[in-house]
Structures are given as C-alpha cells and as structure tokens.
Specification:
Strand content: 15-25%
Order of helices and strands: HEEHHEHEHHEHHHHEEHHHEE
CATH class of the largest domain: Alpha Beta
Strand order of the largest sheet: 2-1-3-4-5
Number of helices: 13
Number of domains: 2
CATH superfamily of the largest domain: Cytidine Deaminase, domain 2
CATH topology of the largest domain: Cytidine Deaminase, domain 2
C-alpha cells in the first residue's frame, strides 16, 4: 500500500457507499476492494432493503471482486467504514485478502452503546491462522459521523420527509426545547448580563457548542450576529441525504430556535442569513435582535 493518503482516498469512496446505504434506508456501511491501486469492487449493505442479515458491505464487496478476478483475492486490500464483524472477518480470511483498513472500530461502536459482537477482526484472523495487515482508524472522525445516534435520528426523520412532516418535527422541537429551557434556565443567570449575551449563551448551551464555535462577529445595541460552526446533526443528515439545508432548516428549526430565545424575553428574535448557511458556506450566519 502506498500509505495513509491512499487509504484515505479509498476510504472516502467507502464513505460514499455508506451514505448511499443510508439514503436507501439501510444501515450505513460501505466497503471497497482495491488491487494494484485499482478499485475492483465497491459495495454497501442491503440488510434492510433485501431483508438479509448477511448482506454486509464487506461480504457484498468480496462477492463482486470474486466475480471479477476470481475467488482468490490475495494481494487485494479491503477498506471499510467500520471494523468487520466476525462473519465478515472470517470471510476476509477465507478469501485471501492481504490487507484491510477501517475507520470506526467495534470498540467505538460498543462505547456508543451500539449492538455489536465484542470480537475484534484481528482475533478472527488469528483463529483462522491467516496473516492480514490491519490499518485502524483511517478517517475515523468522518466514519464516526455515519454512526452517531443524533445523526441517525435526523436521517430517519428527514428521509422522504414532506414539508408537512418538517412542520410537525418543528412542533415537536418546540416542545422539547421548551422542556429543556425549564430544566436549565437557572444556569443562565437571566438578568445578570445583557439580554443579547444571555440569549447567545442560551444557544451555546442548547447546542452543546464551545464559544469559539459560535463567535460573535458583529454587535450593536439592538443586535448581535454570530457564525455557528458547531457540530450539527441536521447539517450532516442533510448532507448525507442530499437535502437543501436552506429549505429544511427554515421549516425544521428556525421557529423553534426563535421560540427558545423568546423564553428569555418576548422582544428577542432569532434569524438566519440563508445566503450564508452550511454547507454552502463555512458557517451559518445567525442573529439575535431586540425588537421594540
């Protein structure tokens, strides 16, 4: 293998397969097989759409590669978004694949509370008496996004959602944010600072952001403007599902965010500049103002 950069290149292809899986309603796993620098197979899982518990990305990629170049895959490298499960690991061993690389590990999944068999792929290779070179943690952060519970929840909500569905989700968001505010308002010290600063601090708390991820870039007596760069499950879900955030976010959460700042003072108003919104910009430009 030519090194980490090449592994990362092919991992991005595998991530693309995993995202296609999620768009289809499957479980979000992707794999590619390469030999001599050329891709011989790319696949994702079809567990849900085919109703087949064995239809894992790695198994499907091995089948495609075997049909192309024969069942002996010696000299091939398999790159997978997630560490192969025991079934896939033993299939890798039997197929003769020489190297594998993965991003998200079984231990990562277990730490998230995901249902996994606590059996690492290297254990399978040892049991099979097979030498397979293993590259761990390739684009781990990018792969981990595929398996975050909050991103998965947003994907499930937004996949095939109509405008009416988005409005219903917004109503649910209003209820949840109202409940959250009631539980956390004591920590805001309302009245101890300027209204705009309090509202800004409220949003930082609600979205689990650091101040540097939502910096104020412009301030007047009546308005502050800030650039949000924090992790956003809705943004990631829209990116994976190929939805326009300018449409989704307006219907899904602008009203609920406006409602949240109004809990501090009814004169406050939250707004967005939809000409500066991720992923079309590197930040979401948002404002809180005081209306007379």
């Amino acid at each position: 293998m030519n090194g980490v950069m090449e592994l990362e290149f092919w991992m991005r292809v595998a991530i693309g397969e995993a995202e296609e899986s999620l768009r289809e309603g499957n479980k979000g796993f992707g794999a590619v097989i390469i030999k001599d620098g050329e891709m011989v197979a790319a696949a994702h899982d079809y567990e849900e759409t085919e109703g087949d518990a064995t239809s894992h990305a790695e198994i499907n990629a091995i089948k495609i590669a075997s049909q192309k170049i024969g069942k002996n895959l010696n000299g091939c490298i398999l790159i997978s978004t997630s560490e192969p499960c025991p079934m896939c690991a033993f299939a890798i061993a039997w197929s003769g694949i020489s190297e594998i690389a993965f991003g998200f590990s079984i231990q990562d999944a277990l730490a998230q509370g995901r249902r996994r068999i606590a059996f690492q792929c290297v254990e399978a290779f040892d049991k099979a008496g097979t030498e397979v070179i293993v590259h761990k943690g390739i684009l781990r952060r990018e792969c981990a996004i595929l398996y975050r519970a909050d991103v998965r929840s947003e994907i499930n909500h937004l996949r095939n959602a109509t405008d009416e569905d988005l409005k219903a989700l917004n109503a649910d968001s209003i209820a949840r944010r109202t409940a959250w505010f009631c539980q956390n308002k004591a920590g805001l010290n309302i009245g101890d600072s300027h209204l705009l600063d309090t509202a800004h601090r409220l949003l930082i708390m609600r979205f689990h952001a650091a101040e540097v991820e939502m910096p104020v870039v412009n301030r007047t007596e009546k308005q502050i403007t800030f650039h949000s760069m924090n992790f956003c499950p809705t943004l990631e879900a829209c990116r994976i599902l190929r939805l326009d955030t300018r449409h989704v976010c307006k219907l899904l959460n602008e009203e609920s965010t406006d409602m949240l700042v109004k809990k501090i003072d009814s004169r406050l108003r939250f707004s967005r500049n939809y000409n500066n919104l991720r992923p079309y910009s590197s930040f979401c430009e948002e404002s809180i103002s005081i209306e007379d």
